[in-house]
């Protein structure tokens, strides 16, 4: 392998590792469906909740923001309360985490949902982020991006329907991402890439 090619490959590996999302299945691409929609009740593919509804891009005229599928809140809750989906991931104390998502209203422009990022547990929440989205429309996708500082504890990323409450329509979600963008992580990845580069040069 040529020296320049090795540099390109190692840079790509470092970049991919640095940008790996802590959210699994953030674009709701799993399980893959061929048309229409489905909903899952087995808490599989990263997300947990009463049910996770997945739409194929183009169904009912709604094109996914990213990939071939997107999710929907308000998908057949069992207990008659607001519907939530969530994931958990570990954080490092004082590291910076960037997060982003795409969202769109399904039925009317008055729909809203809440984003919570917190430590603790579902019954005792120490919030890092607690924000209600009220600005989305049925016409197009909106996006949001921000950041938070890690606590070193297990962290929840939760989305909950607000309006409509416990209904079966509303609040499309796509492209959910959480990345560790702290400087120590980037430096460590660069060190790994450089170590690999030195090893390749020695073998050349």
UniProtKB/TrEMBL annotation:
Keyword Acyltransferase listed: no
Keywords from the UniProt entry: Membrane, Signal, Transmembrane, Transmembrane helix
Residue spans crossing the bilayer: 181-200
Keyword rRNA-binding: no
Domain of life of the source: Bacteria
Alphabetized Gene3D superfamilies for the sequence: Galactose-binding domain-like
Protein name from the UniProt record: PEP-CTERM sorting domain-containing protein
Organism: Brumicola blandensis
């Amino acid at each position: 392998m040529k020296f320049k090619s090795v540099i390109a490959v190692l840079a790509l590996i470092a970049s991919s590792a640095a940008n790996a999302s802590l959210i699994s299945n953030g674009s709701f691409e799993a399980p893959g469906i061929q048309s229409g929609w489905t909903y899952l009740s087995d808490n599989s593919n990263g997300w947990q909740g009463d049910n996770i509804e997945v739409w194929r891009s183009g169904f009912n005229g709604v094109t996914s923001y990213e990939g071939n599928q997107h999710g929907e809140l308000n998908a057949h809750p069992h207990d008659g309360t607001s519907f939530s989906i969530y994931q958990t991931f570990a954080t490092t104390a004082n590291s910076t985490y960037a997060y982003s998502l795409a969202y769109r209203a399904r039925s009317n422009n008055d729909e809203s949902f809440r984003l919570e990022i917190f430590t603790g547990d579902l019954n005792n929440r120490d919030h890092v982020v607690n924000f209600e989205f009220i600005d989305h429309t049925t016409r197009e996708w909106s996006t949001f991006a921000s950041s938070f500082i890690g606590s070193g504890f297990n962290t929840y990323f939760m989305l909950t329907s607000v309006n409509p409450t416990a209904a079966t329509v509303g609040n499309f979600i796509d492209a959910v991402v959480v990345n560790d963008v702290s400087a120590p992580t980037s430096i460590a990845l660069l060190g790994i890439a450089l170590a690999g580069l030195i090893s390749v040069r020695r073998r050349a």
